[in-house]
Automatic annotation (TrEMBL):
Gene3D superfamilies: MFS general substrate transporter like domains. It comes from Salisediminibacterium halotolerans. GO terms for cellular component: plasma membrane. SUPFAM superfamilies: MFS general substrate transporter. This is Predicted arabinose efflux permease, MFS family.
Length: 408
């Protein structure tokens, strides 16, 4: 038990800094691009979007491979490779002198972003199914905290020590976190636990296993829907806050509205995971989706900034249970030898949502106005809840039918 707690603590710390590194460039990305030359505002805005988004787009394709390699060769090895890979790509960002060089390094960072899903798989594999939600919810707090504080840390460092030292400092901390993994993590492999004698499935067999399980594929698509809906409004949020205000500190208040969701997420993620252990993770997913839609829709009608911030916080509370409950459900439904790969596919769905969300939100806002983004995204949450409910009812009927056949 002590080993599991130590592993969890180390991975929490490591995930915090890896997650923070992915978002820390947000506050100063456009300013950093401007240091490379004299560019138009349109050029800077366009390349800011390309350079930020390319990491998630590449990660979408690569995540399942890291998961598979982790299942096959050991998850600790993959954590070390990806940890040092992220640190190296961030360190090299301090020396770039063109948008193409920065774009390439963010692309490289996407290649090595298997760290977080691999850490989830490592902790999941050594966690009792009965407390998987609570443990994975705790681990998720590290990831959420990093994403929440990353922009704040990045902005503060850039202001105080400049861009170069910001990248060097971040790379150094991630290197330290990776050394903690090397010397502090003891991996419990699949062979020492359940399904030890089962043969490892091929990628085609794993994909077939996922597609043949309606609840499993629905749970993973929910990850895509949540990220798409959540990220759909984020690029428009500052503009929306500007419409609600007459003051000049729009950027600060937009940041506050943005951070309120992360704070809500951080507050609730362990609670939802624990409730999932108690009554079933699929039931908690259904509750979270309904609450997410309920708190997202009214954001289209707010008359002032304070109600928006409150609703953003409540929305964060609602979606806080989705990632730990999805991960805990995969822990229960998938053999240990395939968990890393399946979690990799789930992470791919999330990364795809990170890319699709801003693009879809931009198209909707440009065509029908910013409030239309809230309507469409709310419908996505409610639609996902309806689909999940239908499959849960169908599964319950199938189970009852099987039980009756067994009794006869």
């Amino acid at each position: 038990m002590k080993m599991e707690k130590r592993n969890l603590m180390i991975m929490w710390f490591a995930n915090f800094f890896v997650s923070a590194s992915a978002t820390m460039v947000l506050p100063f990305l456009s300013i950093y691009i401007e240091t490379f030359g004299s560019y138009s505002d349109a050029f800077v805005q366009r390349w800011s979007g390309f350079i930020f988004g390319i990491t998630f787009l590449v990660a979408f394709f690569v995540s399942p491979l890291w998961g598979r390699f982790g299942d096959k060769f050991g998850r600790k090895k993959i954590l070390i490779i990806t940890g040092f890979g992220i640190a190296l790509s961030i360190f090299l960002m301090s020396f770039v002198s063109s948008v193409w060089e920065l774009f390439f390094l963010r692309m490289l960072m996407g290649v090595v972003t298997g760290f977080i899903p691999t850490s989830m798989a490592l902790i999941s594999a050594q966690t009792d199914k009965k407390v998987a939600g609570k443990v994975l919810g705790t681990l998720q707090m590290g990831t959420v905290s990093g994403g929440l504080f990353g922009p704040l840390i990045g902005g503060a460092l850039a202001d105080s020590v400049g861009f170069t030292y910001t990248f060097v400092s971040t790379a150094s901390v991630i290197t330290l976190a990776t050394f903690l993994v090397i010397f502090g993590i003891k991996e419990v492999t699949a062979e020492s636990g359940e399904q030890a004698n089962e043969k490892k499935k091929s990628m085609a067999e794993v994909l077939l296993m996922i597609t043949r399980d309606p609840l499993l594929i629905t749970v993973m698509v929910i990850s895509l829907i949540v990220q798409t809906a959540n990220f759909s409004i984020q690029p428009q949020l500052a503009l929306y806050v500007g419409e609600l205000l007459t003051t000049e500190n729009v950027a600060f208040l937009a940041g506050l509205a943005f951070s309120a969701t992360g704070l809500g997420n951080l507050t609730a993620t362990r609670f939802w995971g624990t409730q999932g252990d108690r009554i079933g993770h699929e039931k908690i997913l259904l509750i979270c989706l309904l609450l997410a839609g309920t708190f997202f829709l009214p954001q289209a009608f707010v008359p002032a900034i304070i109600p928006l911030i409150i609703l953003r916080f409540l929305f964060g509370l609602a979606i806080g249970g989705i990632i730990p409950c999805v991960t805990a459900y995969i822990r229960q439904a998938v053999p240990v030898k395939e968990q890393g790969e399946v979690l990799g596919y789930n992470q791919s769905f999330r990364f795809l949502g990170n890319v699709l969300g801003p693009a879809v939100g931009g198209v909707i806002a440009g065509s029908f106005g910013i409030t239309a983004v809230f309507y469409v995204s709310s419908m996505l949450f409610f639609g996902a809840a309806i689909a999940l409910y239908i499959i849960l009812v169908k599964n319950r009927r199938v189970k009852k039918r099987k039980d009756l056949l067994l009794h006869h």
